[in-house]
Amino acid sequence: MEGNGEELTAQETALYDRQIRVWGADAQRRLSKAHVLVYGMKGTIAEFCKNIVLAGVGSLTLIDDRIASEEALSSNFLIPPDHNVYAGNTLAHLCCDSLKDFNPMVRVSVQNGDLSSFDVEFFNNFDVVVVSSCSLPAKKLVNEKCRKVSKRVAFYTVDCRDSCGEIFVDLQDYKYSKKKLEETIECHLQYPSFEEASSVPWKELPRKTSKLYFAMRVIEKFEEAEGRGAGEVSIADLPGVLKLKREICAEQSLNESHVPDTLLERLVTSTLEFPPVCAIIGGILGQEVIKAISGKGDPLKNFFFFDAFDGKGIIENISNSNA
Amino acid sequence: MASSHPHSSEAIRGAKVLMVGAGGIGCELLKTLALSGFRDIHIIDMDTIEVSNLNRQFLFRQSHVGQSKAKVARDAVLKFRPHINIKPYHANVKDPEFDVDFFKQFNVVLNGLDNLDARRHVNRLCLAANVPLVESGTTGFLGQVTVHVKGKTECYECQPKPAPKTYPVCTITSTPSKFVHCIVWAKDLLFAKLFGDKNQDNDLNVRSSDAASSSENVEDVFVRRNDEDIEQYGRKIFDHVFGYNIELALSNEETWKNRNRPKPIYSKDVLSDELAKLNGNIDKNCAFDDEFSVSAMASLGMKNPQDIWSLKENSRIFLEALRLFFTQRGKDVGNLTFDKDDQLAVEFVTAAANIRAASFGIPLYSLFEAKGIAGNIVHAVATTNAVIAGLIVIETIKVLQNDIESYRMTYCLEHPSRKMLLMPVEPFEPNKSCYVCSETPLTLEINTKRSKLKDFVEKIVKAKLGMNLPLIMNSSNLLYEADAEDDMVAIYAANLEKVLAELPSPVTGGTMLRVEDMHQEFGCNVNIKHREEFDEEKEPDGMVLSGWTKHVSAPENKDKPAANNGASTSEASVPAAESDEVTIVSPSKKRKLTDDSGIPNAPAGEARNHQDELQVIDDEDDLVMLEGSMEGFKKRKLS
């Protein structure tokens, strides 16, 4: 991607002054031409949307037909808590109204419909697709559709449970430039899809792989097996989750201590997002999307985990190549 | 934490917190605090909203420009959390109303500040009031959060903070080698001379070629005669500073032995007479809405601030900007100080710096870049601030739960270090030789027979010790008090003008001075050591403070510890968040770290003074000890 020589307007230069000093005018131009799609308007996505609308992407499209409930307000600052305002409205519409306000130079709109129903052609309209609170089959389906589009569509999933968060990144075949010492060098990364990454045998992963990676996969599998939506678990499900964990660990020949019961317990106990973690995960994700659009700087490959308990924000590379 | 800790929500709901700063970090923090269930938040910020804030301070809109940050932030957050108490103060945290008693009402204080001075002030008040402080900072993609609890962890000032970068006077006046030197010259000397207070000292040569020979009755070429044509005056200034003064410098052969000789630039060589006339014509059709929209670029039809202008374009901007100052903003001339938000001032300084750079064979810069350097603009993005705000709230909850074992300092990195982008580190114990949170005296080398009390107050007590309302005692005798009773004002004023050794209670080698700030409820002792001579270049203050600050006050050391130790990192790399303090952020200079994680990619020098062992928290890996060299300061685990 090359900037096509169009200049930023005086208005853009004034508004984006401080960030142009970070990533340069050509990155800012690329941002202003990028189209981003998000699904799952909860706290983490609200944070992410705020970040990229402020950064000045070209357009942002929101999908989430769920009707607003009191629970949806808990960590989402985009929805006014007035029952008269939110009652009967979809999450996407409510968030859209707030986001439009943040930056008049960004087109924010709503796409109605079920995420899984959109075809490959639909995803061709976007450069970046981010999904959250999405069931395992839906995640894989959207990821595959993005991969079938002739141009490269960057795909991300993001989820926060309790005080933990996870980001997955698929940039497919990704070339970018970075500064090393005084020169700019070209780099090339090959990403696996979510399906490919999650089928890497656990025993082949490095011993110190984040425990959250395993725990998130167990819960995802549990929700899929039970036919639940993402996050539709409670403490009552703990025995079932622990049973599934033992089965998977046996099947994958992984010592059970890599998936602590206490961690699983935390993840199923609270279905609400923890706002500080939404801010952290939404911030890191925003930064990654900006990197991917501008083609500048090392992108995450391919998982990121944060746990407020130990305070670490860790990158894991889960792909066949590192086996 | 979160809902799995049933008591945490109780601690949050009952907490009364003070936020200092409603800017980049502040907006994010206020939002995250409100969402997390905090119900009683007080917020102090003296600033009003500017356009360049809007890309990250998301609680503010275009329509809010000019209004109080604290008040607008409150109103914005109440829209999504209407039933909580947010009390805004549009005021300076250093105002006397925010005294120790004010601080005592809070369970914790959260800093989202943009300057070292205010950070130190809040640190002292938190120590005096015994209220925990969560401190934070960001620049670009880098950030950090630290926890300061009196007696448990180090205070904000336990590690010396680097002083703003300064340049030797002769580099600026005679031998610039970098663009930044030209900017400093254009801003602090030329701009100040032409448009600032005429009574200020200025190192610019003002003698014209005619007057150079006579030492008496020197005519200042910068003074515009009443009847002098503005075009002519502009060219006279141009020729004097870029032509004559360079010729004068060239005549000193010694200077240029090992340097490239600059080339004098005269307006007639760059601009034909025709062009100069054209300038004037364009302008007459150009109307400006208000004084801050007056622009030489607009008047000359130049639009893109990212363009690098040619020498000719710079010269036209220079003359046009100078002309506009006198014709459109005549009432400002004589009391202007450089302001990065003053378009005409930025244009003038950019052009002047570029012409000087051309003369010295230094590459030219665009207005956009020059503005960043001249205005000490710190890079800032929304995402880093959001991440840092999340980390602040996590630490705040631990502080409210008194969960000392879990306190962490956390770095937000640009490049992963040991797979980590967010790296938690155990906090340090208080530094026993810290003059702020321990009682360790400082030592001052000074010429007691030559230096005045005034010099000590300005250069040490205010600039180095960060006191606002100081009081100085020699044993039981008061020498000076900023906030004095009426009958003492004259006596203290007289003392300020006295040489130390000649004060009513003489200060000589061996004297122990007591210095206190009543507002900060903070004091320290200074041992005086008499010394005759100081190196003008290396010790421009004519005095050297040591003890706690020894690394800081030794500028000749500045690059050594950092450059020779690739494996070191620093927890003092507070990337002076959105800071006005970082004098110059060198765009190309990047410090090297073990794994390029970028911690000290902070303003050159932020990290340089402080190298200790840094222990990375890890429950299963071997601890990584990054080597350090700071004496007398060993990391120990908190107990």
Automatic annotation (TrEMBL), chain A:
SUPFAM superfamilies: Activating enzymes of the ubiquitin-like proteins. Pfam families: ThiF (PF00899). The keyword Ligase applies. Its EC number is 6.2.1.45. This is SUMO-activating enzyme subunit 1A. Transmembrane segments: none annotated. It comes from the Eukaryota. PANTHER family: SUMO-ACTIVATING ENZYME SUBUNIT 1, UBIQUITIN-ACTIVATING ENZYME E1. It comes from Stylosanthes scabra.
From TrEMBL, chain B:
Pfam families: ThiF, UAE_UbL, UBA_E1_SCCH. Keywords: ATP-binding, Ligase, Metal-binding, Nucleotide-binding, Ubl conjugation pathway, Zinc. One of its GO terms (molecular function) is ubiquitin activating enzyme activity. The keyword Nucleotide-binding applies. Pathway: Protein modification; protein sumoylation. Residues 444-534 form the Ubiquitin/SUMO-activating enzyme ubiquitin-like domain. Residues 332-371 form the Ubiquitin-activating enzyme SCCH domain. Residues 9-435 form the THIF-type NAD/FAD binding fold domain. Residues 553-616 are annotated as: Disordered. Heterodimer. Belongs to the ubiquitin-activating E1 family. This is SUMO-activating enzyme subunit. It comes from Stylosanthes scabra. The gene is SAE2_1.
